[in-house]
Design goal:
The protein is of the alpha/beta class. The protein contains eight helices and seven strands, in the order αααβαβαββαβααββ. Strand 6 (175-181) and strand 7 form a beta hairpin. The protein is globular.
Length: 198
C-alpha cells in the first residue's frame, strides 16, 4: 500500500478507531506490564496510532513518553487526548531521533509495515543497551482454530495486515533474553527482549 493510500485509510478510520479496535486489539495491558517501566524512564511507543497505549502508560506519570506514527490523522487524535505526550510523525522503516529510549513498545504496527525487518532494526537503534522492547502483533490461528486461518488471513490481508512474520527470530539479532507469549489458539503474539550491551 502506498504512503498516500495509508494516510487516506487512516484519515477515514481515525475518528472511530478507538471504538472499533478495542474489540480485536487485545493484550495491551500485558504488553505494558512487560516493559518493566521504572521512574524517569524514557519510553517510546512505535506505531502509536491514536495513543491507545498512552492511557495505560499514564499510570506512570513520572516517565517521559514519546509516540511515533506515520499517520498525521491518527496523531491528531492522539494529541487531542494526551497533549502532555510528545507525538512525532515518521515512518518506522526510516525514523531517526537524536534521543534514545530506555523502554519501547510496538503494538499492532509491524504487521502493517512493508519492510518490517528494517523497521525493527531502526527501532532497536533507538533503544539504550539494557532497555526493553515489547512487540504485540497478530499471528496465525493455531490448534483447534487452525482451520479458520485461511478465512482470517484473507480478511486481514484486505487491510494490508500480514500476520506470518517471525518477530522473535528477528528480535534475537539485536536483543537477548527474548521471550515469546502466544495463546494456545494463536491470533496474537507478544515478544519481549532486552537490548544487548555489546
Amino acid at each position: 500500500m502506498s504512503q498516500r493510500k495509508v494516510e487516506r485509510f487512516y484519515r477515514l478510520h481515525a475518528p472511530f478507531y478507538d471504538v472499533t479496535r478495542r474489540f480485536f486489539l487485545f493484550k495491551r495491558k500485558r504488553a505494558v506490564s512487560l516493559l518493566g517501566v521504572r521512574p524517569q524512564d524514557r519510553v517510546a511507543d512505535f506505531g502509536c496510532g491514536t495513543g491507545m497505549n498512552a492511557k495505560l502508560l499514564s499510570q506512570y506519570p513520572e516517565i517521559s513518553l514519546t509516540g511515533m506514527d506515520f499517520s498525521e490523522s491518527m496523531l491528531k487524535v492522539a494529541r487531542k487526548k494526551y497533549p502532555h505526550v510528545r507525538w512525532v510523525r515518521g515512518d518506522l522503516e526510516a525514523i531517526s531521533l537524536e534521543e534514545k529510549f530506555d523502554k519501547a513498545l510496538c503494538t499492532y504496527a509491524l504487521s502493517l509495515v512493508n519492510d518490517w525487518r528494517q523497521a525493527l532494526k531502526q527501532m532497536s537503534s533507538l533503544i539504550e543497551p539494557g532497555g526493553n522492547l515489547v512487540i504485540l502483533d497478530f499471528s496465525p490461528l493455531k490448534g483447534p482454530l487452525n482451520f479458520l486461518d485461511p478465512v482470517f488471513d484473507k480478511w486481514f490481508r484486505s487491510f494490508r495486515v500480514f500476520r506470518k512474520r517471525d518477530f522473535k527470530s528477528e528480535l534475537e539479532l539485536y536483543f537477548e533474553n527474548v521471550v515469546e507469549e502466544s495463546p494456545a489458539v494463536g491470533y496474537l503474539t507478544l515478544v519481549v527482549g532486552r537490548k544487548r550491551k555489546n
